Amino acid sequence: METVIAFIIIFGALVFFHELGHFIFAKRAGILVREFAIGMGPKILGITKGETIYTLRLLPIGGYVRMAGEDLDTIQIQPGHRVGILLNKDGLAEKVILNQKTMYPEILLLEVEEADLEKDLYIKGYDEEEKFVRINVARDAVIEESGKNTILAPHDRQFGSKSVGHRFLTILAGPMFNFILAFLIFSALGLMQGIPTNEPVVTEVTEDSPASEAGLQNGDLVKEIDGKAINSWDELVSTVQVNANNPLAFEVERAGEPLEFTITPEVSEESPEKVGVIGVLYRSPLEKDFLGSFVYGAEQTVFWFKEIFRLLGMLVTGQFTIDALSGPVGIYKTTEEVAKYGIFTLMSWAGMLSINLGIMNLLPLPALDGGRLMFFVVEAIRGKPVDRQKEGMVHFVGIMLLMLLMIVVTWNDIQRFFF
Description:
Layout: H1 2-28, E1 33-49, E2 52-67, E3 82-87, E4 93-98, E5 108-116, E6 122-126, E7 132-145, E8 148-151, H2 164-193, E9 195-196, E10 204-205, H3 210-214, E11 221-225, E12 228-229, H4 233-241, E13 248-254, E14 257-263, E15 266-267, E16 276-277, E17 280-281, E18 286-287, H5 290-316, H6 328-339, H7 343-362, H8 369-382, H9 388-418
Parallel strand pairs: 4-7
Antiparallel strand pairs: 1-2, 3-4, 3-5, 5-6, 6-7, 7-8, 9-18, 10-17, 11-12, 11-13, 13-14, 15-16
Helix pairs in contact: 1-2, 1-6, 1-7, 2-5, 2-7, 2-8, 5-7, 6-9
């Protein structure tokens, strides 16, 4: 149950922040947002606030922000249709009822001759007295059809009517908010548990190792190696790794006293790259630093961004296969293992996942945010948008391929973890 709760919280936070980025920038651009959804598939819960319905859906495989004009959701009223119209105090149509079955007090029945619900916002037709009338429609009018209410989306409130810049930022904001979330998580870790000092202090010397044989002890502070100042544990490690089988002169400080040792790194048996090791372990002491916590958050975000990008490059160049990828099942099982090590480790895992989600969505593949951004770039270069039907077909093919990849990855996860 703890794993389930942890997975739901992590998944929910990642998807929420991603979609929040789309939502905020859509609102700033004046786009009508019809739905803010966490999860996919059948709706479990829905709350309407203002012009947006906020939903929780069954399948934990993503989420979406549904914007007016993206799914051809505009209402069309054809000549000959009979509609019912409710007027507000200013004489504008505030509700238009299609396929009317329920009578409202003071409803105006109209046989439509002509209608424009996108730009000029009017309905023309004949009323019950065969009188030809024109009714102007309010910008926030509601269209009711078969009991379902849809808020009118004038052309200037649709996604496609906005400038390339506004659309680009609206889509880009999703992945960017994942990076912001990762920064906040890593910064919170720094505030809560402290920041690793990364000092070159030996925490533990393993038995029968080059360091042990040379006389290095727990708590020794490494000051120099071969005359070069060592200011961090990372510098110590990198120096040792590139000097396998080469004697190194260590200058250390023990209880305030300077000492010197000559240590020859041996080749690590666990590494295929033949790096040098001397047999010391490190657990960085932690210190509390309010401002430093945010620096730490930024450093960790950049580090994991580079690391995930490096692994992605290895996948593209064939250095590891698709079998190494994990889907929701793999993420769930890894979360189960990570949760055993406590809340701080779980938070670090969530930060890494958030960066991973942001990077994956920025890939220039159809149906992903990166694919849509590529179409905006092409539009900016050409000076006109790509045909919507052609773009939609590309995204549809992309969705099918991604679903196929998801099935393959999920099957690999099931095989790996349960069989």
